[in-house]
């Protein structure tokens, strides 16, 4: 641990890697702190070593962690970390497990303190922050009845993957409709982000093609917007502020 700003995540990473190093070297007990502490650099760390050097041989690992948190972190770091976690929401472009791992990673630094979220609190936090459509599907599958946290994670991951697969199927359906469309000069959901296209030669205005009835039905069945033509848009055309897009929005 050297120069630069030290946040809770960096400090937690230092503790974990130091503990793994000590385990690899077979160092334990009161030898742990003095073996690791002299590997630190930076102005604050050197000043701390100068002041605490005589006490290192009798300092245990838990006391060392308390001292490091007091040295590098603000007094409210635990509260700030909790607030950051509670403000996080899963975007509909991010797979659930990536989002869950991001939140659990933020929950690691307060480990061993009363601000650390156990499995029950973490499950409730993830449920509250997950994407709306995924939340509805989890409620339909009654995932709340699963008591084991790891089993719950695995089940939500399965539902999320199925949800993404269905969106991929809808994309294929749109591609098929473009082939079957009686209008040979258009592609379903094709439009210009600027609402008009000027050709290089004639500079003529090309209007946005109207939706086919089959496309309207597909959007209606999947919470879509007739203007931006995104699935799961949670709004209707009159409230849509986005320009029309080339194709419905799907998650990878």
Describe what you observe in this structure.
This protein has ten helices and no strands. With 252 residues, the chain is mostly helical. The two termini are 37 Å apart. The protein folds into three domains: 65 residues; 88 residues; 75 residues, no CATH class. The C terminus is likely disordered.
Q: Return the average pLDDT rounded to an integer.
A: 80
Query: Approximately how much beta-strand content do the residues carry?
Result: under 5%
Order of helices and strands: HHHHHHHHHH
Total beta strands:
0
**Structure classification:** mainly alpha
Give the fraction of residues assigned to helices: 40-55%
**Low-confidence runs:** 183-203, 246-252
User: How would a crystallographer describe the biggest sheet?
Assistant: none
Question: What is the total number of structural domains?
Answer: 3
Number of helices: 10
Shape: elongated
Distance between the termini: 37 Å
Output the radius of gyration.
27 Å
Summarize the structure.
This protein is an all-alpha fold and 252 residues long. It has helices at 8-25, 31-37, 43-52, 61-72, 77-86, 96-107, 119-129, 132-140, 149-180, 213-221. The protein has 3 domains: 8-72; 77-164; 165-239, no CATH class.
